[in-house]
Amino acid sequence: MAWIYLIVAGLFETVWATTLKMSHGFQKLDYSIYTIIGMGLSFWLLAKAIKTLPLGIAYPIWTGIGALGTIILGVTLFGDRLSSLTWVFVGLLLISIIGIKITVH
């Protein structure tokens, strides 16, 4: 169950990072509220996950999921442009997350 909490926490990290941009520096109330809710859920689920998962494993996976999701949403929603080399490193980040998960006993 801890892994599910961790994955969902990472997805909520993507939510709050995206809605933070959409809030325009907390100037738009609705997106500001979504940001705060997303942060709260993300941290709460991370806290539940690290009750049983090692912090040194859970934290980088949480941030990695958030980073990957935010990159994808940045490209699709905001038209962020990434170089080919940047995409290589995004792929390496994904491989690293999977590698950490696979090698945890």
Automatic annotation (TrEMBL):
Keyword Cell membrane listed: yes
Keyword entries, A-Z: Cell membrane, Membrane, Transmembrane, Transmembrane helix, Transport
Pfam families assigned: Multi_Drug_Res (PF00893)
Regions that span the bilayer: 33-50, 57-79, 85-104
Main location: membrane
Coiled-coil blocks: none
Cellular-component GO terms for this entry: plasma membrane
Protein localization: Cell membrane
Membrane topology: Multi-pass membrane protein
Single annotated GO MF: transmembrane transporter activity
Family of this protein: Belongs to the drug/metabolite transporter (DMT) superfamily. Small multidrug resistance (SMR) (TC 2.A.7.1) family.
UniProt-recorded name of the protein: QacE family quaternary ammonium compound efflux SMR transporter
Species of the source: Loigolactobacillus coryniformis subsp. torquens DSM 20004 = KCTC 3535
